[in-house]
Structure formats: C-alpha cells, structure tokens
Write a structure and sequence with these properties.
By secondary structure, this protein is α+β, with helices and mostly antiparallel strands. The protein has 8 helices and 8 strands. The protein has a 4-stranded antiparallel beta sheet. Helix 2 crosses helix 6. It is globular, with a radius of gyration of 21 Å. Bound molecules: 3-iodo-tyrosine.
Length: about 230
C-alpha cells in the first residue's frame, strides 16, 4: 500500500501533515459540556494564599500560553515571572500609586459606579501575597540585525489570546489569578528593565486562592444574550 506523504512543499516552504483527533457526536457533546463546566468554575480572585507553587507549574502554563495563534506566527509576547519579594513590593507600590490616581481622578463617575459591585479599590495587597506575578509584555516590533524595526501583526489580538490560554492553564492547575490592569502600566517596563520594543499588557498575580476567599456574586450572560445563529 502506498504511504500518504507526510509533508509537501508550498512556495518553497515545508508543510507537515496534520491529523486532528476526532470524536463521535455523542462524545463531542459530552466533552464540550465537561469543558464548559470546568471553565465555568473559574473566577477572578483577589484573595490569595502565600503558599508556594513549584516554578515548573508556572513554566508549563507559560508553555501553554505560547501555543496561542499569533499574527504571522510572530509570537509577539514575553512573560516575566516575578517571585522576588523586593521586586513584588516595588511593583505593588508603583501599581497602587497609579491606581490611587485612577480611582481618585482618572476614572469617570460612571466607571466607578460600574465597578462598585466588584468591591475593588486602589489597594493591591495581592501583588505581594501571591507567590508569583506574571507581567505579560507585548512586542509591537522586533529589532533586525542592524537595529532596524520589523513590525509585528495583530499584536493586541495575539497577546490577548495568549493571555486567555494562560488564564485557562492557571485555572486547570487549580490555581487562581486576576486580570489586573493598573493603568498606565509603564512602571512595569521600568521596574523589570524591559527592552524598548516591549509594552506592558497585563499583570497576573498567580497562586492558590486564600482559604477565606470571597468573590462577588455575579452571573454570566445566558447563551441567548451572547449568541446569534444565522
Ligand atoms: N484597574 C483598576 C480598576 C478596574 C477596572 C476594571 I474595567 C475592572 O473590571 C476592575 C478594576 C483595578 O485593577 O483595580
């Protein structure tokens, strides 16, 4: 029997054969339901335990994040993992400074009203308590060998997708996170001494939920409100 080719050449580039694992319709329904029920247990948590987490777990999560699709496969992201207490303290101090300005001056009354049910304020103790902070940076461009700039593509979409994968991986490991958005976030670039082609995108504290953690009693929109079938 003739063996199927396991690669072809398209415009001079090698394309390898890809076989995706498929399931019966019944199994698909079951798997999709079980997956939903798993991710539906995820919540944004603001109360963390300081219990240590093996770095290997964080490394695996970041490898999962890096499997996200990206524009022209440029993978325009860097994940900075902060375990060092001194650096976490500096990040907390700088984040709270920005947040105080935001809550007191920059955010509109409507915005503050919209946040009230979440119980947030400018104090961010979790930035010191969580065993790790993952500061995600986007890379709008790369430097070539002569220092010239090469633009990346769909950078926000790509890094947003990678963050989604990361958040899902954190939940899958039984840990929690919070998509913290101190704004502006330039202080992260300074504290972590990032190269000039990186911009802070998201700050994710990662760890176990505190034993006495509480989350706001909020509901997800029902399917009828979020899906239109044509
Ligand atoms: N960045 C602030 C405020 C904040 C904004 C939104 I939109 C939220 O959903 C939650 C908080 C903070 O992190 O507290």
């Amino acid at each position: 029997m003739k063996q199927a080719e396991d690669y072809i050449i398209v415009d001079g580039f090698k394309h390898i054969s890809y076989k995706s694992e498929t399931f019966s319709e019944a199994k698909m329904i079951l798997r999709s339901k079980e997956y939903y029920e798993g991710v539906d247990k995820r919540r944004s948590v603001r109360h963390f335990s300081d219990k240590p987490v093996p770095i290997e777990v964080i490394e695996n999560m970041i490898k999962s994040a890096s499997t996200a699709p990206s524009g022209a496969n440029k993978q325009p992201w860097t994940f900075c993992v902060v375990k060092n207490a001194e650096i976490k303290k500096n990040i907390r101090k700088a984040a709270e400074e920005e947040e105080r300005k935001s809550y007191n001056e920059r955010m509109s009354d409507k915005w503050l009203e919209d946040l009230k049910h979440l119980g947030t304020d400018a104090n961010k103790p979790f930035l010191e308590i969580a065993p790790y902070l993952i500061a995600v940076f986007k890379r709008p461009f790369e430097y070539g060998v002569n220092g010239e700039k090469h633009e990346n593509y769909y950078v926000n979409e790509s890094v947003g997708l990678a963050c989604g994968f990361l958040i899902s991986a954190i939940h899958n490991a039984g840990l929690v996170t919070l998509t913290h958005t101190p704004s502006p976030m330039r202080f992260l670039e300074k504290i972590l001494e990032r190269p000039a082609n990186e911009r802070a995108f998201l700050l994710l504290p990662v760890g176990y939920a505190a034993e006495n953690a509480f989350v706001p009693d909020i509901q997800r929109k029902p399917l009828e409100k979020i899906m239109d079938l044509y």
